[in-house]
């Protein structure tokens, strides 16, 4: 099976080495689509002997078992160890795609822990990044959302020490498909990628219909926004450290005067999470809270009583009183 060109392999090696801390085994998530097969070919050529692959079979389509078996045969031909991870997906309130993603990362994290692997590579690329940014623009997202998918994050659903790496964010979809064609492989065609019941498929089609929109340039904008997000986060943490004090009764007090609006939103969220670490209010709820506190108001959010004024005070909200039982 022909390997990618030396130039492409060297480019991939540089891109991944910019994300990973050093030597060690690498896990590659391979669905059988063109993007993940290209990732497999590049990783195996750039880091021979270090790569292991896994395919998650969600069991959501009749073809999924056969597709996992195809990836297994491909990995065998390349000499790459491979595991098929079968999961059960229940949509619930979060939606089927979100539930599948959560189940996928839990399964991959378990396999990696067993195999002693700390880095998972996925095939998100520049076109994916452009689609993500446009979807989030249409939803009115702030800087954090417009930063798109990040090149390196802790592995979702896994313990500390594992990371998800996306070394292909600077690569175009067509270039990855060309690598797979040159290797003589026939990738999986997932029909959901063209199903306009999903936001991403609709955005993908509109991008294809508008050649004046450059996905690579949009992806670069997402990368710039990611840098801005990191800077805002650093400034918010610094302001939190400088402007908050804990009182003897456990209350957290913030001096908000002069803090720019976006930094203040973030500092307020840090205050909420200091009281309740799992607090994750929606953006509009957080914005409304900041507005109320700026007007010297009082509000409760995420189980925390928040009082405004020259200083803002955050304390656990008292338990709600139960209504008296209705007499029979």
Task: Kindly list the characteristics that best describe this protein.
328 residues, alpha/beta, Rossmann fold, 5-stranded antiparallel sheet, 11 strands, 13% strand, elongated
Task: Explain what this protein looks like in three dimensions.
By secondary structure, the protein is an alpha/beta fold. The chain contains 11 helices and 11 strands. It has a 6-stranded mixed β-sheet with strand order 3-2-1-4-6-5, sandwiched between helices. A 5-stranded antiparallel β-sheet has the order 7-8-11-10-9. Helix 3 links the parallel strand 2 and strand 3. The longest helix has 29 residues, at 215-243. 34% of the residues are buried. The model has no long low-confidence stretch (mean pLDDT 90).
Summed up:
This protein has 328 residues and is an alpha/beta fold. Helix content is 47%, strand content 13%.
Radius of gyration: 24 Å
Portion of residues within helices: 40-55%
Gross morphology: elongated
Tell me the series of helices and strands, N- to C-terminal: HEHEHEHEHHEEHHHEEHHEEE
Name the CATH architecture of the largest domain.
Answer: 3-Layer(aba) Sandwich
CATH topology of the largest domain: Rossmann fold
Helix tally equals 11
Q: If strands are numbered along the chain, what order do they take across the biggest sheet?
A: 3-2-1-4-6-5
Mean pLDDT: 90
**Count of folded domains:** 2
Number of strands: 11
Structural class by helix and strand composition:
alpha/beta
- The rounded distance between the terminal residues' Cα atoms is 79 Å
The poorly predicted ranges are none
């Amino acid at each position: 099976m022909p390997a990618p060109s030396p130039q492409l392999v060297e480019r991939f090696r540089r891109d991944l080495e910019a994300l990973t801390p050093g030597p060690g085994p690498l896990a590659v998530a391979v669905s059988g689509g063109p993007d993940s097969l290209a990732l497999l070919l590049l990783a195996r050529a750039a880091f021979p002997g270090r790569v292991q692959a896994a395919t998650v079979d969600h069991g959501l389509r009749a073809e999924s078992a056969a597709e996992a078996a195809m990836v297994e045969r491909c990995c065998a031909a390349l000499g790459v160890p491979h595991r098929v991870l079968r999961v059960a997906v229940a949509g619930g309130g979060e939606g089927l795609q979100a539930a599948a993603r959560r189940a996928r990362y839990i399964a991959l994290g378990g396999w990696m822990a067993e195999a002693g692997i700390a880095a998972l590579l996925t095939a998100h690329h520049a076109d994916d990044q452009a689609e993500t940014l446009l979807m989030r623009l249409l939803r009115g997202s702030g800087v954090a959302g417009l930063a798109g998918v990040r090149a390196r994050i802790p592995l979702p659903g896994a313990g500390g020490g594992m990371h998800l790496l996306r070394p292909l964010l600077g690569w175009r979809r067509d270039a990855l498909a060309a690598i797979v064609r040159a290797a003589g492989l026939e990738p999986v065609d997932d029909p959901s990628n063209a199903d306009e019941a999903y936001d991403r498929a609709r955005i993908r089609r509109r991008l294809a219909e508008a050649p004046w929109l450059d996905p690579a340039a949009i992806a670069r904008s997402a990368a710039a926004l990611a840098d801005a997000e990191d800077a805002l986060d650093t400034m918010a943490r610094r302001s939190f450290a400088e402007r908050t004090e804990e009182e003897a009764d456990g209350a957290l007090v913030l001096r908000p005067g002069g803090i720019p609006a976006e930094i203040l939103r973030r500092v307020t969220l840090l205050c909420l999470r200091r009281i309740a670490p799992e607090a994750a209010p929606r953006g509009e709820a957080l914005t409304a809270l900041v507005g109320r506190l700026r007007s010297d108001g009082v509000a409760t959010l995420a189980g925390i009583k928040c009082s405004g004024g020259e200083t803002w005070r955050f304390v656990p909200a008292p338990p709600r009183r139960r209504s008296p039982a209705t007499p029979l």
